[in-house]
Design brief:
Elements lengths: L1 E6 L8 H12 L3 E6 L11 E4 L9 H9 L4 E2 L2 H7 L4 H7 L8 E2 L11 E5 L9 E3 L4 H13 L4 E5 L9 E7 L2 E8 L22 E4 L3 H12 L9 E8 L5 E7 L11 H14 L1
Parallel strand pairs: 1-2, 1-3, 3-4
Antiparallel strand pairs: 5-8, 6-7, 6-8, 9-10, 9-12, 10-11, 12-13
Helix pairs in contact: 1-7
The protein binds adenosine-5'-diphosphate and magnesium ion.
């Protein structure tokens, strides 16, 4: 049995998350290797493809989804990948009654009466093309909004949730629908910093630490999972939450495509995923 762990050409060997998974799979007697999703790869060699660090797809989403749809056995399933690679899925979750970060979709202009707000594209990862704007920055914010729109991208505008500066973002990781562990991700967007590239240079931004979720966070995450299309087929899922103005956890993202699972922060979960993958073969 050989398993491909799909990655991108920027990270041909994967990352620490993938290395933790490969080691755990090895301990289960399973061979696994990184493979670049749009590289010169004979996918028929593999019994299973597990999508992992494919973090360059936002500029080529159609090709990425088509690649997943062409694979005989891929996890998460290709239909889930199609749905989940565009954050417009958040509208489906809001329609299902889940607490999602309030979002203006493709607004004509920047909000005039919000203290601070975030502008981001619906297809993105790693905070790319994302920025936090405030009073007095309307011209730059408008230019940002228009540059995304002119590139044919769906634009999302959300109030900046200031609780992220103190509480951070809580990422709840699920394996085969069961809660596995959680991580706290520190705040990322700096006021006045303009549009983000990949966050690399400041180690405090987006810093990951192990955490224990609150009952309220667990409850929202479980409800989100239950509302997902294809829920029974999900090998992995990560629900990202930030407290709203009244402290209620709000869903910022449900990552079913290529979530970092933060396995080095949760060794028992690496084993859990390895056993789950083994059972899928
Ligand atoms: N409405 C918001 N309020 C506060 N911080 C936000 C908001 N939207 C995004 N961010 C910050 O930007 C980061 C990236 O945004 P996110 O929606 O998670 O997209 P992605 O991770 O796919 O790039 C988040 O981890 C968070 O730190
Ligand atoms: Mg995110």
């Amino acid at each position: 049995m050989t398993i491909a762990l799909a990655t991108c050409s920027l990270l041909p060997g994967g990352n620490d998350d993938m290395r933790a998974l490969i080691a755990a799979l090895g301990a289960e007697g399973l061979g696994a290797e990184p493979a670049v999703w749009d590289g010169d790869v004979d996918w028929s060699r593999y019994d299973l493809v597990v999508i992992r660090s494919t973090w360059d797809y936002p500029g080529k989403r159609n090709a990425f989804v088509a690649w997943a749809e062409g694979l005989p056995h891929v996890l998460n399933p290709a239909a889930v990948i199609r749905w989940n690679t565009d954050k417009r899925y958040l509208r489906d979750l809001a329609d299902a009654g889940l607490p999602v970060v309030p979002t203006l979709w493709d607004p004509e202009d920047v909000p005039s009466d919000w203290p601070e707000y975030v502008i981001k594209p619906a297809v993105s990862i790693g905070s790319r093309d994302t920025a936090r704007w405030g009073p007095g920055e309307e011209d730059e914010a408008r230019a940002h909004l228009h540059s995304l729109r002119d590139a044919g991208r769906t634009v999302m505008v959300q109030p900046y949730l200031p609780a992220v500066d103190t509480a951070g973002e809580t990422a709840l990781v699920f394996c085969e629908g069961e809660y596995a562990h959680a991580a706290r991700k520190a705040q990322i967007l700096t006021a006045g910093a303009g549009v983000q590239g990949p966050v690399r240079n400041d180690p405090t931004r987006g810093q990951i630490t192990a955490t224990t979720p609150t009952e309220a966070e667990l409850d929202v995450a479980h409800r989100a999972l239950a509302a997902l299309p294809g829920a029974p087929d999900l090998l992995y899922a990560r629900v990202d939450l930030i407290p709203g103005p009244d402290g209620t956890p709000l869903i910022i993202e449900v990552e079913l495509t290529e979530p970092n699972l933060y396995l080095p922060h949760a060794p028992p979960s690496a084993k859990k995923f390895a056993k789950a993958i083994s059972a899928r073969l």
